[in-house]
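Running this now, will post back.
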Amino acid sequence: MPRAERERQMMEAAVTTFGRRGYRAASMDEIAELAGVSKPLVYLYLNSKEDLFTACIRREAAALVEAVRSGITPGEPADGQLWAGLLAFFTHTAEYPDGWAVLHSQARTHGEPFAREVAVMREEIVAFVTLLIAEAARAAHSNPALPEGEVAGLAEALVGAAESLAVWANATPHVTAREAATTLMNFAWAGLANLLDGQPWTPPR
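Update: finished.
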């Protein structure tokens, strides 16, 4: 079997094991058995358990970012792009729940360097959403109507909501990716639409 194919098998076994068992509970023996190879071969190809987990994080992060980016058609209205991105996000996390568990549950809870790997991915997605919101503001007004800091905060809130909703959707039977994306669009875009129309909510005095 070609080396690349063998590595792919071992990586998929590792993602499944880490996603379901957790980083600390997962063993190289389990990963090797699931991949159908010997444990020394796993070490030979992918080095230590820490290196293997880092490689899993990078692989799943790259796949998620690519799924979101490829789901969006440039030039579409901002709400259409956001909808397509959310749908791609929830579709991917539903189709690859072990990979999502590695990124959202495991990597973040075991400190550096794992948490930093996920932070890099998250920063890329937040930056992308920030651009979408800024573009929506420019489309609604001749000049950008939202301060830079507010746009950044909205993007952070939207990404955080998507992450939490993906965890809930994966744990709740019969919730589809389309339903999850629709829920977040109804929650977020209605408020954004008012904001972009110059009708922000203000707290009582």
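The chain has a mean pLDDT of 87. More later if anyone needs it.
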